[in-house]
Amino acid sequence: MKQKISLLIGLVALVVIVLFLIKKPTPNPNHNLLAGTCKVLRNEGKKLNLKQYHINFYMENSASMDGYVNGNTEFKDVLGQMIVSSHHCCKGTDFYFINNQVYKANTSAIGFIQMLAPANIKVGNVGTTDVNQIFRNILNNTKKDTISVLFSDCIYSVTDVNSQLDNAKNATTDAFLTALSNDNTLATIVLQFVSTFDGFYYDRNDKPFVCKSPRSFYVVITGNRDALKTLYSDFKVGSLPGLKNKCFFSSESWTLDEMNACAIISDYTNARRIKTQNNFLDIDEISLDKTSNSLQFAVGVNFSDIFVDESYILDKNNYIVEPSSFSVISVSKASTSSVGDFAYQPSKPCAIKLSVPYGSFAPVVTVALKKSIPSWVKKANVRDDAGYVPAANQSFAIQKVVEGISAAYSTDYNDYFKVQVNINKYNK
Predict the structure, then answer these.
(1) What percentage of the chain's residues is helix, strand, coil (to nearest 5)?
(2) Which helix (H) or strand (E) holds 299?
(3) Which uninterrupted H or E stretch holds 354?
């Protein structure tokens, strides 16, 4: 009997040991990945150290740029402030003039700033420039530890707006797609500034017009996505003089879950009660107010780790909802009281308010922030500048330039993020 008991104990012990040694499956962090996205967003809260990065500044020096460096201008101020920030924050800084070729300026940060005058920037062929050649040259030299900053008016050199603009846009897309094929962590920020200007404006036919009024210029920054986020913050880009508009581009498309999104249970709703499930995002039940024509409720999103400009996040026209009977009626910064609905303290919370017609209730709601051109780009665009100088905040064919950049970052994914809310019950 004792032998049988000993044998049984031995078998139990062996089974326990075998079960202990069997490797448990590793949890998949993307098990809740929504179709059409590449990763579940995880807020790590880490700030990248710019001391790991070298910054190259490129100034287009075609004749059309002379007016931006003639006297004291916002152009020179912005370039100077960014150079000083780079000099103190980054591993190293180099300076280049660029037209159809790249010319290094062998000087210090202060020396480069001081030489910015029309007579001093005549390096290389300044008669005409090809913006796409500029992009290709810069992107070819943007390595994994490099951030490239271009100062330019970003005007295509085309004479026929009907046949050449789309070709130019496609060439822009090709330049950025080639760079992304070598490094898919690349991202791009496009900034629009307005500066005083004293020089000649050249229309698409290269006809010069004396211009002594403000003109738009653009700063195009390309590099590692996390590095650009840190640069934008550390360089205080949002407070640079003359900044009017901005847009951010990256190839990621995120799934948001209860770690960075929630169903807001009190504010922004006309329901009598919203009860969430334990994960803060899915709704157990909504008790309806039958006196209303439609149901309204909101989804909270923490967009601190999403590479998109705040103004784009807050534009309701940039969202799509499934089912299509649901609609986004407003997007705003989340109220103080609704912040408590998040699983974790959000640093940049917003509230996406939805409207649901009665009779269109659905158990699953998906909200997506689509990748599209910000509305300011269309307002800034001039399709044909032949014979005149555009307004200060407008530029010839800038929409095609931005569309070309955007298309490269939208090839694989159509949305910046998606979030899904499951609704268990509508109490009618």
Answers:
(1) 30, 30, 40
(2) strand 294-302
(3) strand 349-357
DSSP strand pairing (381-382 vs 395-396): parallel
Match 């629009």 to its residue by tokens: 192
Q: What pTM did the predictor assign? A: 0.90
Digit-by-digit pLDDT tens for the chain (428 residues) are 444 444 444 444 443 333 333 333 334 445 579 999 999 998 766 678 999 999 999 999 999 999 999 999 999 999 999 999 999 999 999 999 999 999 999 889 899 999 999 999 999 888 878 999 999 999 999 999 999 999 999 999 998 998 899 999 999 999 999 999 999 999 999 999 999 999 999 999 999 999 999 999 999 999 999 999 999 999 999 999 999 999 999 999 999 999 999 999 999 999 999 999 888 999 999 999 888 889 999 999 999 999 999 999 999 999 999 999 999 999 999 999 999 999 999 999 999 999 999 889 999 999 999 999 999 999 999 999 999 999 999 999 999 999 999 999 999 999 999 999 999 999 98
What is the Cα–Cα distance from 154 to 401, expressed in whole angstroms? Answer: 7
Residue with tokens 């500034």: 193
Cis amide leading into 323 (omega within 30): yes
Range list of H helices, 95-164: 109-114, 131-140
The DSSP code for 253 is -
Mapped onto helix, strand or coil, the DSSP state of residue 197 is coil
Say how far apart CA 143 and CA 136 lie, in whole Å.
13
DSSP 70: S
Rounded (5°) CA angle 417-422-426 = 135
| Element spanning 86, H or E | helix 74-89
Main-chain phi, psi angles of 196, to 5 degrees:
-60, 150
Cβ(260)–Cβ(420) under 8 Å?
Answer: no
Taking the C-alpha atoms of residue 176 and residue 192, their distance in angstroms, rounded to an integer, is 19
